[in-house]
Amino acid sequence: MEKQAMTFERGLDFVKAQDAADPLASFRDRFAIPKQPDGSDLIYLCGNSLGLQPKVAVTLVREELDAWATLAVGAHFAAERPWVSYPERLTPATATLVGAHPGEVVAMNTLTVNLHFMLVSFYRPTSGRHKVLIERPAFPSDRYAVESQIRFHGFDPTASLIEIGPRPGESTIRMEDLEACLRAEGSTIALVLLPGVNYYTGQVFDMAAVTRLGQAQGCVVGFDLAHAVGNIPLRLHDWNADFAVWCTYKYLNGGPGAVAGCFVHERHRDWAGKPRLAGWWGHDPTSRFQMGPDFIPSPGAEGWQVSNAPILSLAPVLASLDIFEEAGMRALTAKSDRLTSYLAFLVHEELGAYVEILTPLESEQRGCQLSLRVRGTREDQRKVFEALETHGVVCDWREPDVIRVAPVPLYNRFEDVFKFVGVLQQTLVADG
Fold first, then answer.
1. Which of 9, 46, 47, 74 is spaced 20 to 30 A from 396 at the CA atom?
2. What is the pLDDT of residues 354-373, one digit of tens each?
3. How far is CA 107 from the centre of its chain?
4. What is the separation of C-alpha 322 from the centre of its chain, rounded to a whole number of angstroms?
């Protein structure tokens, strides 16, 4: 079915009508919205960096603290949500969000730790096939992890790291350039590691195509979904990705440093005897407490666990996942598309002479983040960003010259977008 074109208006009446008709509007009340000094809500457009706190997270954390106080070690089995199986409570909703089977996902560690765990297993370089393909710009932590793994295996990143970037004068990576790179270098590439959404530009990668093209060349294909999970629809199992990792503190609202997630495709389910970092909690749960000397891995993604779960850190993630299940990713994606399209519309109509949008405008090539570049010197750009902060707008800056703005459908309104553009316009006019 052909997608219906969106129509927008510039006035406040239109904005209020959109918010009044929003079927997801009530979810905003479930989040703690930071306040300005006068008590009004901040214009918070930074869920791509840290999602807001679900109010119910306080209750869930307090319940686990109470279980600790009243049951102590007995809470592992006797708590309302027994700690020994707590991570499994996150599995169904997580699997739904990333388009996986339940046995393919696990909540554990943090994102870069999980990336290292996956690289230990899936980056197995040889003299003829030792290269890793990443994007430019890649998030620094991904690059650091890859470079360190290359060196760990005795190779030189200057020879073993391939970066695919935009063409001169362009902001995003063309699929045909990625395909050409894989055709030219594929026989020497051990691993393709790309994001679902690029942190800097907000570009969404065609993960199905990337997986197909990479695996056709004999490459392992993995994804960093830090900016994708909870933001765009994902179908990791159907796309046949080998692995994926993500954090939960951005769009998944799990709180700072929250427990991250990991996907391992079910075709790798029986990994016994192959390289991996092992720990007691990755042992088969049916015999884990027999305390035997031999590691018998849990089948699937759970076999990559090494330690028992940090319950107090998992509770906020569970709180948020319950909200995602209730709202539904289809409804969230529909609102996100319209909300972000409206932001792009206003920026173009009101600020086209001052601001460039780096993010693709086609819905299938972006999530809710728009990366904006204010025309002018870097000093001018920083002044604009700092002025936004002064006027109660929370977004974020990424070097060298990008302001990232993310209207999150769970708690942002059309009015937030409208106010943001108004503040940005006032700032730019004031600066001349």
1. 9
2. 999 999 999 999 999 999 99
3. 14
4. 18
12-30+328-430 folds as: Aspartate Aminotransferase, domain 1 (3.90.1150)
Q: How far is CA 169 from CA 165, 206, 216, in A?
A: 11, 22, 30
Report, as residue numbers or ranges, the catalytic residues.
139, 224, 249-250, 404
| Residues β-bridged to residue 404 | 371, 396
CATH of 62-325, one of 3.40.640.10, 3.40.50.1240, 1.10.10.10, 3.60.10.10: 3.40.640.10
Contact 410, 28 (CB under 8 A): yes
Distance CA 93, CA 68 (A): 26
Reduce the DSSP state of residue 364 to 3 states and report it.
helix
Please state, in angstroms and as integers, the Cα–Cα distance from residue 117 to each residue in 83, 108, 122, 262, following that order. 24, 11, 9, 10
First to last CA, the chain: 46
Report the alpha-carbon distance of residue 56 to residue 59 in Å, rounded: 5
Q: pLDDT tens-digit profile of 253-292?
A: 999 999 999 999 999 998 878 899 999 999 999 999 999 9
Measured in whole angstroms, the distance separating CA 37 from the mean position of its chain's CA atoms is 31
- Nearest Cα residue to 276 out of 123, 125, 117, 126: 117
Q: Which of 261, 264, 272 is nearest to 298 (CA)?
A: 272
Going by C-beta distance under 8 Å and a sequence separation of 6 or more, which residues neighbour residue 45?
393, 394, 395, 405, 406, 407, 408, 412, 416, 417, 420
Residues 107, 309 contacting (CB under 8 angstroms): yes
Q: Position of tokens 């932590």?
A: 141
Q: How far is CA 291 from the centre of its chain?
A: 36
Helix (H, G, I), strand (E, B) or coil at 222: strand
pTM, two decimal places:
0.95
Question: CA 208 to CA 198: how far, in whole Å?
Answer: 16
